[in-house]
Amino acid sequence: MTLREAFEVQADNNARLDSPFTARVLRIAGATLKPGTPLTDRMFDWEGNVGAFGQSLPLRFLAGLHALVLTGDCAELKAIYPPNPAPSDDRIEAALHVALSDHATTLDRWLDLPPQTNEVRRAAIMVAAGHWLAARYNLPMHVLELGASAGLNLMWDQFALQAGETRLGPTDAQVLLSPDWRGDLPTGTLPTVQSRRGVDLMPMDITDPDDLLRMSSYLWADQPERLARSRAAASIFSANVDQGDAADWLDAQLEAVAPDHLTMIYHTIAWQYFPAETQNRCLAAIETASQLGPIAHLSMEADDRKGEGAAITLTLWPEGKKLTLGRVDFHGRWVDWSAP
User: Fold this and answer.
1) What is the number of other CB atoms lying within 10 angstroms of the CB of residue 228?
2) Pairwise CA distance, residues 246 & 188, whole Å
3) CA quadruple 108, 114, 115, 118: dihedral positive or negative?
4) DSSP letters of 221-289?
5) CA 157 to each of CA 125, 167, 186, 324: distance values in angstroms, whole numbers, following the listed order
6) Which of 8, 42, 146, 149 fits a disulfide with 116 by CB distance 3.0 to 4.6 angstroms?
7) Contact at 8 Å (CB) between 5 and 318?
8) Does residue 11 sit in helix, strand or coil?
9) Long-range contacts of range 56-59, CB-CB < 8 Å, 24 or more positions apart?
């Protein structure tokens, strides 16, 4: 996939995910970017898959633009971004030219960073699966997240989920998730989470202004409700996110597996960024540690059914039983639930 194709595909994705403004920015950027500067040469010469199922270069670039808006460093961009009225294509192109010319250093720095959306609405899957697992095992849980970013979704048991007429979670939850729920309604028991911990190669500390900016930059400018939801989750955050390789970290964490609790491991739109060796080591560690106690491996990841959201799968160990729980929109706007 060429760089221009990656921008066009990502623009289509953003449009489908209810972000028409960022779709326009991506489409215009993809059509007008050209080699000739250190920044654009780096983008055109990027090794590997630059698209949405690889290194997501368009999203890295888009986040850099948003960071320039949030800081106010690029007045030309800020003037065309929401909540301002929708600009013409010519004004968008002109603002992009200024950003590329005057703020190449910032944009180049953002290219170094893999997207870390930390989309809180994805936690609807953890809430539903967590209740299902609590009813099945009747055990307290130790929760581990791979590719946790800022770790906001480690707080899923303190979020409430409204699915049709069914509500799961604490009655006084600060975060309410209400996706368009399709299929069976979720059922189960309120889970007891005894510990929660995550890992990321480049974790964000939401108490640090720079990391708060970074997290915010990945949220699309014409979707302010996502930023409000993330801030609500941040207000109750009380977990640890370690810096490190997922496989090394998981090996160490799984030493504590025991029969008196359920270890719940999950990842959401993160697995694709792990090298194959890391993926294989994680899976091997889970299977080995399951001889010490029960483990549930929950996955929300893209598959070959493009345009149909992400697949939700749950593997129960030590038996190695793999369950299909349905599909979910990448940003959690809808859930098609089919838990047994």
Assistant:
1) 12
2) 30
3) negative
4) TT-HHHHHHHHHHHHT---EEEES-HHHHHHHHGGG--TTSEEEEEEES-GGGS-HHHHHHHHHHHHHH
5) 11, 13, 14, 22
6) 149
7) no
8) helix
9) 56/10, 56/114, 56/115, 57/3, 57/6, 57/111, 58/6, 58/7, 58/10, 58/11, 58/26, 58/29, 58/30, 59/10, 59/115, 59/218
- With H, G, I as helix, E, B as strand and everything else as coil, classify residue 180: strand
Q: What is residue 17's predicted lDDT score, i.e. its pLDDT?
A: 86
Single-letter code of the amino acid located at 20: P
Q: Which residues, listed in sequence order, are joined to residue 195 by a DSSP beta bridge?
A: 142
Any idea which residue has 């160490």 for tokens? 252
pLDDT of amino acid 114: 83
- Average pLDDT on 69-86 reads 96
Sheet with 160-163, edge to edge strand ranges: 166-168, 160-163, 176-177
For 173, residues 6+ apart whose C-beta sits below 8 A from its C-beta are 158, 159, 160
Distance from the first to the final alpha carbon of the chain? 39
- Report CA 198 to chain centroid distance, whole Å: 13
DSSP one-letter code for 51 = S
**pLDDT tens track for 203-235:** 988 888 898 898 899 999 999 998 889 989 998
Q: Which two tokens stand for residue 281?
A: 């080591």
How many of the other CB atoms lie within 10 Å of CB of 160?
17
Could you tell me the CA-to-CA distances from 140 to 198, 248, 310, 330 in Å, in that order?
18, 25, 28, 29
Tokens 């929109």 correspond to 329
Q: d(Cα 95, Cα 93) in Å, to the nearest integer?
A: 6
pTM: 0.79
DSSP three-state, residue 300: strand
pLDDT at 24 over 90: yes
